[in-house]
Design goal:
Layout: H1 6-9, H2 12-15, H3 35-48, H4 57-97, H5 103-112, H6 126-141, H7 144-152, H8 155-169, H9 176-196, H10 209-218, H11 221-239, H12 250-265, H13 278-283, H14 285-310, H15 318-334, H16 340-361, H17 375-392, H18 407-424, H19 431-443, E1 447-452, H20 453-465, H21 467-470, H22 477-485, E2 499-504, H23 515-522, H24 527-545, H25 557-565, H26 570-588, H27 597-655, E3 672-673, E4 676-677, E5 686-692, H28 693-698, E6 702-705, E7 715-721, E8 726-733, E9 741-746, H29 747-755, E10 760-762, E11 766-769, H30 770-782
Antiparallel strand pairs: 1-2, 3-4, 5-7, 6-11, 7-8, 8-9, 10-11
InterPro entries: RasGAP_C (IPR000593), RasGAP_CS (IPR023152), RasGAP_dom (IPR001936), Rho_GTPase_activation_prot (IPR008936)
Region (Disordered): 7-35
Domain Ras-GAP: 177-393
Length: 784
């Protein structure tokens, strides 16, 4: 029965707000609106969302939105893994550039770059898979285990565990059940954090597994979408002004001033020595004159950022607001005498310190801008983040006394920010809907996790390591699962780290085969209640399926049923006949009047809601399309970075003789044939590969060009690689045989520039973007 009326009922829970009448109220008959009936209506609607029979604009938009959310969830995990790889390799490649890495370490890094191969390695056998399925169902549905584990692991272990928790165990970031279970886990973690806190000032501030977990949560799809929507335009408009210097630190302003004087005159006056203390710099009249207008401009820009954030209250993801609510609630319980300002400082510590400010300071890492902002805008963004943090917390100027000059911004906005932080906490709880979600999970035929072998084994190992704390009793379900699995297998090599589909189930929960029967047994819902809701749902579904049938108002429900029963569509005919019979039966039971007044009103309201819902779905889909594209672009950037590292590592290993001591080989590696060393082959020159000025400018490789506009069509570049890791870029003008200019580039030099955050490569006539050049060379020479 649930399947038959699916799509039409899908919106009933949405159209009935928390303060509006329930679906069974106000109609003829004495069926009262109880909590049970409302819960049943919710459950019925959730089950109905599985229907695929309706194919109207709303259904197509919802399908598109579901697909987008699935893609974003999947891509977010891939990016999280890639970011971890890049962070690891950043440090390793830095050592390699400095020639401080042994050959064995080079091999380790090379293995870290290998992609998983689905043809290698072994899967766990069926019995093990069943045991893991039982274990992970238990972990997912009883979040307290993961909550305790997150507090027990070390900082070195937390990132791998968080990858599994945030992007696999609760990886469907837009699915309410998984989101609510994850938030339940946060509640346990935060409660324990507050219970063990010894002083108010240290709460949620230190870099602990808990704080790392909160930061990682904000990097999920909904958080990324919010940051993109709210901050991207504001940040991009700021960084366009590359030369706008708003430095307000007197010492830095003084240094910049005397450097400029020395550059202009060739010497420094005696009264402007180098190496002065901050107090002397701050007292200099010229420094004060430079800083004064900058202060006003910085505060003006900070105000524009603050206005944008305060206006975005309704766009803040539910989960982030709910965590803010828990912080406020737990603080009041632990410290009943805490002032509103103190409580808001803790909420701001999470919302700004862990969520907003990192995106402002490093917008490129959050996919809000293309590439690294230039020096001056980068500093301005840092100042804005400092101001917002000072606003959210009690400011301390002990380390940065110059920030005191910006204190008017803090004083003028205290009341506004406290109101916003309190308003963030004003969201409802989800416990009742989670109960419904759990019913739905037990009624599903399959719940699966896409999980890698190493995620599986690492979680197993951490659970086994802390078994006595997590499950001290022998009959504890978690301990029984771990005992059944035995010791955790070791981590597999990266190449064998396949993703498997793990079916989840529970041996201790009975699957719900019939939602109706289950609910009838557990509540005082009657068959008449069920028939009323099903009749309304089928009517809405028929109206959505037959164009123009609802144009005439008020609706004639019996006529709609009769029209459907006489169409040429067999499914609609069957539903039309069924709903006509149900209307007659409801009238005979005295549940509705002979004009179906209340049901007509409810169906009309439902249709109005669906029309509004379609617009909202389309708006959300359009927004998420942009988010998905941005996440995809970031993924491409991370992959190009890894490709550059692969190319460099390959070059280093070849230069060192393919694994012998450094300096034994150059160019290509030594080849052995039949155990004997063969002669080195002749080095193959790769290229030249030709690129036009227009092509490189369009792709962002040329960041700035001094070539006149009317001559750019005659300019082209030839790029050659005479030996691995070395490239020659030659700038040519059409019609001339010889190159106008040639530059010899080494891959390690480029990577070193990238490590030092040098953005541009000066080729005299053009300036090239270092990151884009690396990506171009990798694509052109390494992937061929």
């Amino acid at each position: 029965m649930v399947r038959a009326v699916a799509a039409a009922a899908a919106a009933s829970s949405d159209s009935t707000g928390p303060n509006s009448p329930g679906p069974l109220s106000g109609r003829k008959g004495s069926i009262s609106t109880t909590r049970s009936s409302h819960r049943y209506s919710q459950l019925y609607s959730m089950a109905a969302e599985q229907d695929v029979e309706v194919e109207d604009d709303l259904a197509r938009a919802q399908k598109r939105l579901r697909e987008l959310k699935t893609k974003i969830s999947s891509q977010s995990k891939k990016n999280f893994v890639l970011e971890r790889d890049v962070r690891y390799l950043d440090s390793r490649i830095a050592l390699l550039i400095q020639n401080r890495m042994a050959i064995a370490e080079q091999r380790e890094v090379a293995e870290h770059l290998e992609e998983a191969d689905s043809s290698d390695g072994l899967f766990p056998d069926d019995r093990k898979l069943q045991s893991y399925g039982n274990l992970f169902f238990l972990l997912q549905t009883e979040p307290r285990h993961i909550a305790t584990l997150c507090r027990l692991v070390s900082l070195t272990e937390i990132d791998t565990l968080l990858q599994t928790v945030m992007f696999t165990l609760y990886g469907n970031q837009y699915e309410s059940r998984e989101e609510h279970l994850l938030l339940t886990m946060f509640q346990s973690v935060l409660s324990a954090q507050f219970e063990t806190a010894t002083e108010f000032g240290s709460l949620l501030r230190a870099n602990t597994p808990v704080s790392r977990m909160m930061t990682t949560y904000t990097r999920r799809g909904p958080g990324q979408s919010y940051l993109k929507t709210v901050l991207s335009e504001r940040i991009n408009s700021l960084i366009e002004h590359k030369e706008l210097n708003l430095e307000v630190n007197p010492l830095k302003v003084y240094e910049q001033m005397i450097n400029q004087i020395e550059e202009n005159t060739g010497s420094l006056p005696a009264h402007l020595p180098r190496g002065v203390p901050p107090e002397t710099a701050a007292a200099n009249p010229d420094v004060q004159a430079i800083i004064a207008p900058r202060l006003s401009m910085v505060m003006e820009i900070a105000n524009s950022f603050l206005d944008t954030i305060l206006e975005s209250l309704d766009q803040v993801p539910y989960g982030i607001r709910w965590i803010c609510k828990q912080i406020r609630s737990l603080t009041k319980r632990k410290y009943p005498d805490a002032t509103d300002f103190s409580i808001c400082s803790l909420i701001g510590g999470f919302f700004f310190l862990r969520f907003i400010n990192p995106a402002i300071v490093t917008p490129q890492a959050y996919m809000l801008v293309d590439g690294l902002p230039s020096k001056h805008p980068r500093r301005t963004l840092t100042l804005i983040a400092k101001l917002l943090q000072n606003l959210a917390n009690k400011p301390s100027y002990a380390k940065e006394a110059y920030m005191m000059t910006l204190n008017p911004f803090v004083e003028n906005n205290k009341a506004r920010i406290n109101k916003f932080l309190n308003d963030l906490c004003e969201v409802g709880d989800f416990y009742e809907s989670l109960e419904m979600d759990q019913y739905m999970a037990l009624s599903k035929k399959e719940i699966n996790l896409n999980i890698t072998m190493n995620e599986l084994f690492n979680t197993h190992q951490l659970l086994a390591q802390h078994r006595d704390t997590l499950a001290p009793q022998e009959k504890h379900h978690l301990r029984m699962c771990l005992n059944e699995l035995g010791p955790a297998p070791p981590q597999v090599p990266r190449k064998e780290n396949k993703t498997i589909i793990l079916p989840l189930f529970s041996r201790w929960e009975t699957p719900i085969q019939d939602l109706h029967s289950t609910f009838l047994q557990e509540t005082n819902i009657t068959q008449a209640d069920i028939m009323y809701m099903e009749t309304k749902s089928i009517l809405v579904q028929l109206i959505r399926s037959i164009p123009g049938i609802a144009d005439k108002r008020p609706l004639d429900l019996m006529k709609i049923a009769e029209t459907a029963a006489t169409t040429k569509d067999a499914i609609l005919v069957r539903k039309g006949i069924k709903v006509k019979e149900m209307l007659i039966e409801l009238e005979a039971l005295n549940v509705v009047d002979d004009h179906f007044t209340f049901m007509t009103e409810e169906v009309t309201e439902e249709l109005r809601h669906l029309g509004n819902l379609r617009e909202k779905v389309n708006e959300e889909a359009a927004s998420l399309e942009s988010v998905y594209k941005t996440i995809g672009d970031h993924n491409n950037y991370l992959r190009s970075q890894l490709d550059s590292y692969k190319a460099y590592l390959q070059n280093v290993r070849m230069q060192s003789g393919g694994g012998n001591s450094p300096g034994q080989g150059s160019g290509v590696g030594v080849v052995t044939v039949g155990g004997k060393e063969a002669k080195k082959g002749k080095q193959q020159v790769l290229g030249p590969f030709k690129f036009t000025h227009h092509q490189l400018e369009k792709d962002g490789v040329i960041a700035e060009s001094n070539v006149p506009e009317n001559r750019r069509s005659n300019i082209f570049f030839n790029i050659t690689s005479p030996i691995p890791g070395t490239f020659i870029i030659a700038l040519h003008y059409k019609g001339r045989d010889k190159a106008i200019l040639e530059m010899d580039l080494k891959l390690d030099d480029l990577l070193e520039k990238q490590q030092d955050q040098v953005q541009l490569l000066d080729l005299e006539y053009v300036h090239l973007n270092v990151n884009k050049v690396l990506a171009l060379l990798t694509k052109t020479f390494i992937k061929r």
